[in-house]
Automatic annotation (TrEMBL):
Spans through the membrane: none
Protein name stated in the entry: Pyruvate ferredoxin oxidoreductase beta subunit
EC number, as in UniProt: 1.2.7.1
CDD domains: TPP_PFOR_porB_like (cd03376)
Organism: Methanococcus voltae
UniProt keyword Oxidoreductase, yes or no: yes
The organism's taxonomic lineage, starting at the top: Archaea, Methanobacteriati, Methanobacteriota, Methanomada group, Methanococci
Length: 297
């Protein structure tokens, strides 16, 4: 990995995320893989708030804060502007400029979905990275369309009425694949080489690319800060977060755990699942087994 990717840090360490925040790891690895010739559009959310408390910034590439709902629309505009400057003014001659949009799961699967679908369907040459911490963290852990089944959030609170979130997690990679775009992938902060290879490929491909990366959140998931990377790994090993890519319609698993661990080993590490009974865990395990069989994991 050290040989393949530059040592240069384009994402500065002095941000204001919670200790152990996985979103910082997403940004750091993305920029390492994409390199300096990158322009970022960042939807409102934790990543934006923690990296740019005025007048400071953690970004060492051009970066634009955009509204909660329009990261993909702004990235489309940036891509069109770069094309136009190339054609009309001869700027960026012979250069590949990466246009990368970052949105949280709320900003992507919910409020930014329309802008994202439009950008993908129009075929803009951009990479959209959905950093998925599975709730609206910046505003106090409200559920999103990407919150997993049975997770407790402030708007899907586990108690005597409901057992946490009562709907399955929205399957964003497959929805994006249905747009017929050239590249879709899932990733994890705990498998950095796999993620960076995917970012590199997504940048090199001509046309829209979408990567959804699972990002453990100490505050919203309820676990000690030092466990972020371990949790990301447990999610992959338990099969709740499979790593794959879909390149020009071809599906390929990029990491297959040699032996899957039980879902309980993952769930028991987090407060958002502490209400689960043995029956709940069994139900969850059956769902995961079925999904893994479908996905070839
Ligand atoms: C139109 C609009 N509605 C609501 C908000 C308030 N708001 C800011 S960030 C945020 C949650 C962001 O959640 P997500 O996209 O999942 O990112 P995270 O904070 O988890 O990183 C909300 C609701 C807003 N900024 N704009
Ligand atoms: S709430 Fe979660 S996503 Fe937001 S800064 Fe803290 S750890 Fe990161």
């Amino acid at each position: 990995m050290a040989r393949q990717f530059p040592r240069e840090e384009l994402f500065a360490p002095g941000h204001r995320g919670c200790a152990g925040c996985g979103a910082a790891i997403v940004a750091r690895l993305t920029l390492k893989a994409a390199g300096k010739n990158t322009i970022v559009a960042n939807a409102t959310g934790c990543l934006e708030v923690m990296t740019t408390p005025y007048p400071e910034t953690a970004w060492r590439v051009p970066w634009m804060h955009v509204a909660f709902e329009n990261a993909a629309a702004v990235a489309s505009g940036i891509e069109a502007a770069v094309k136009s400057l190339k054609r009309k003014r001869g700027l960026y001659e012979g250069e590949k400029v990466n246009v990368i949009a970052f949105g949280g799961d709320g900003g992507t699967a919910d409020i930014g979905f329309q802008a994202l679908s439009g950008a993908m369907e129009r075929g803009h040459d951009m990479v959209y990275i959905m950093y998925d911490n599975e709730a609206y963290m910046n505003t106090g852990v409200q559920r999103s369309g990407s919150t997993p089944y049975m997770a407790s959030t402030t708007t899907s609170p586990a108690g005597s009425v409901i057992r946490g979130e009562n709907r399955p997690k929205k399957n964003m990679p497959m929805i994006m694949a249905a747009h017929g775009i050239p590249y879709v992938a899932t990733a994890s902060i705990s498998y950095p080489e796999d993620f960076m290879n995917k970012v590199k490929k997504a940048c090199e491909i001509d046309g829209p690319a979408f990567i959804q990366i699972l990002q453990p959140c100490t505050t919203g998931w309820g676990y000690p800060a030092a466990k972020t990377v371990e949790l990301g790994r447990l999610a992959v090993k338990a099969g709740i977060w499979p790593l794959y890519e879909i390149e020009n319609g071809e599906y390929r698993v990029t990491y297959k755990p040699s032996k899957r661990i039980s879902i309980e080993e993952y769930l028991k590490t987090q407060k958002r699942y502490r209400h689960l009974t043995e029956e709940d865990i069994e139900e969850m395990q059956n769902l995961i087994n079925h999904k893994c069989q479908e996905m070839g994991i």
